[in-house]
User: Which sequence fits this backbone?
């Protein structure tokens, strides 16, 4: 039952005919949650009965739209900005792969030599590729063009372009372990038997069972991956990281960066809850936080995270904001599969800003860095950073 | 348009896959209506614009779930209505609070929340400021920290007062979107209202 007084006061207010006293009375009602349902009902009524035409200020409509679309990727300027439209390509491609109709080609797993980077021009960006090691040690090379179904015991594995998907067999007795290795210059997406999704970055390896049985789901990671874990009551998911650290998960999405050439491994939580355990200490993360674990002594620090930065690789970018040159160079080294030789002696003055698309050739990336005073030279598959 | 619901399903599916052009179509279809409703009830252009931004930001942030919504238009308007209600409630309480003498009003739960999260929000604000363009940053800092007027900022930076206004308004939008995309509405509304007031002052 609508409060007549509220109705009257709201009408006066929207018609801008309210007296000072009526406004004060209305405020008391609006501020009182007892009237919440009624106020909401009134708003719905105004919405349904048609409103006068109010035009937005000129330009504002576009500005808001741009702000929203720019929020996942903080605004940048200059050269870097012009590259930004590429940022969703890989992600969009991954989704299309997920939803697209399948072409099934049966193929017996063949033993392959690890030659994923052969025949590649130096400096071309990385692409979807990986090597799957089956339980019996057989290796299957996966690239962007492959569409195949692999039968392993009772487990069906389906590859479609850059995505590898496991289908739960329901036969938990025959659990075995597979490993997906993504070489330098590669990336790959994986759907585990429980429906959890994993995006693997270059130079990374994930070991996982072909079926999740028992009271926990455990996978092992080296390198970097973004996880979207499917919720399963009573069967928590955990990620073992460099033998020392464990990330326990309860239905959630997060990124783990744990390369052996980085000083710290970093777990960044996007949604849900995770618990990071390192040595004797453990910390719960809230969304928007990250745990940094020192690779050498296992000490842990929890800090507010820059999520865009942590996930830039997955969105298809190198993030320059707050990134130092050596860190960026290690990222370039993994993605373009090049060796970096730094002769600058730390003599590169300017701070970076913005982000660079991972779809660019290395030469173009280095060209962008020139603008920040980073001078370099490419020699076969080496990048030499020059002194000023 | 009889085919609109089907067409909309396709658009929502495409948005969930990250298609910006599909998002633009849906935005074009609804934003003026939401603006009109928000303005009708708040009577402030700036507030109505913020509500439009918040609502569509939320749509974009949770794009993956859009295909699961059966009646998108109703869902969108409920979202808008809830934002409008939250603004009405918060702004009413704030003004009631200000008109009463100190100590007469008990501290609202919302404000306790805001106090607890103050530190966290400050960090978030600093992050949000860091992602602005250098010029927006400069304008924001001069206005916020040095409390300069728009004209004074224009003089200091050698820009026209109109340009400063544009920078300021972009900066505020960008900061708000950055924070909103990382924290739920209720905790931060108070904080944001403060920013909004500074925004009015700078204009």
Assistant:
């Amino acid at each position: 039952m609508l409060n007549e007084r509220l109705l009257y006061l709201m009408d006066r207010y929207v018609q801008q005919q309210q007296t000072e006293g009526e406004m004060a009375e209305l405020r008391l009602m609006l501020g009182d949650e007892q009237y919440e349902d009624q106020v909401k009902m009134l708003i719905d009524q105004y919405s349904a009965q048609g409103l006068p035409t109010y035009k937005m200020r000129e330009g504002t409509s576009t500005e808001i739209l741009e702000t929203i679309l720019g929020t996942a990727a903080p605004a940048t300027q200059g050269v870097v900005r012009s590259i930004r439209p590429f940022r969703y390509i890989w992600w969009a491609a991954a989704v299309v792969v997920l939803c697209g109709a399948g072409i099934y080609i049966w193929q017996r797993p063949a033993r392959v030599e690890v030659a994923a980077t052969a025949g590649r021009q130096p400096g071309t960006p990385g692409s979807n590729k990986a090597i799957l090691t089956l339980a019996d040690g057989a290796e299957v090379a996966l690239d962007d063009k492959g569409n195949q179904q692999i039968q392993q015991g009772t487990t069906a594995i389906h590859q479609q372009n850059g995505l590898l998907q496991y289908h739960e067999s329901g036969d938990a007795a025959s659990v075995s372990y597979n490993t997906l290795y993504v070489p330098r210059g590669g990336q790959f997406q994986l759907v585990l038997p429980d429906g959890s999704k994993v995006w693997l970055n270059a130079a990374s390896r994930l070991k996982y069972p072909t079926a999740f049985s028992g009271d926990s789901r455990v996978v092992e990671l080296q390198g970097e991956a973004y996880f979207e874990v499917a919720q399963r009551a009573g069967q928590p998911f955990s990620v073992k990281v460099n033998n020392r650290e464990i990330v326990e998960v309860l239905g959630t999405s997060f990124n783990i960066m744990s390369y052996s050439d980085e000083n710290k491994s970093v777990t960044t939580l996007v949604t849900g809850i995770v618990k990071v355990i390192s040595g004797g200490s453990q910390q719960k993360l809230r969304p928007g936080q990250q745990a940094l674990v020192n690779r050498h002594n296992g000490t842990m620090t929890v800090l507010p995270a820059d999520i865009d930065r942590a996930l830039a690789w997955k969105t298809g970018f190198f993030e320059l904001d707050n990134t130092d040159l050596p860190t960026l160079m290690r990222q370039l080294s993994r993605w373009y599969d090049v060796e970096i030789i730094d002769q600058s002696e730390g003599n590169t003055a300017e701070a970076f800003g913005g982000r660079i698309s991972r779809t660019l050739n290395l030469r173009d990336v280095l060209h962008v860095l020139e603008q920040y005073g980073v001078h370099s030279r490419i020699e076969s598959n080496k990048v030499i950073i020059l002194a000023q | 348009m009889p085919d609109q619901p089907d067409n909309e399903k396709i658009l929502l599916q495409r948005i969930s896959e990250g298609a910006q052009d599909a998002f633009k179509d849906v935005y074009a279809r609804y934003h003026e209506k939401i603006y009109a409703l928000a303005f009708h009830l708040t009577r402030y252009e700036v507030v109505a614009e913020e509500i439009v931004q918040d609502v569509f930001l939320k749509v974009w942030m949770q794009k993956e779930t859009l295909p699961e919504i059966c009646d998108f238009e109703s869902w969108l308007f409920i979202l808008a209505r809830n934002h409008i209600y939250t603004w009405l409630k918060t702004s009413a309480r704030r003004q009631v609070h200000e008109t009463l003498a100190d100590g007469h009003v008990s501290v609202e739960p919302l404000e306790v929340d805001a106090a607890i999260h103050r530190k966290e929000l400050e960090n978030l604000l600093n992050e949000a400021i860091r992602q602005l363009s250098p010029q927006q940053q400069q304008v924001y800092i001069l206005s916020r920290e040095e409390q300069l007027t728009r004209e004074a900022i224009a003089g200091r930076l050698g820009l026209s007062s109109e340009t400063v206004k544009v920078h300021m308004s972009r900066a505020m939008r960008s900061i708000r979107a950055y924070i909103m995309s990382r924290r739920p509405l209720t905790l931060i509304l108070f904080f944001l209202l403060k920013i909004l007031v500074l925004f009015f002052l700078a204009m």
Summary: The two ends of chain B are 42 Å apart (CA to CA). Chain B has two domains: 4-96, 108-202. Residues 100-116, 197-203 of chain B have pLDDT under 50 and may be disordered. The CA atoms of residues 114 and 188 of chain B lie 7 Å apart.
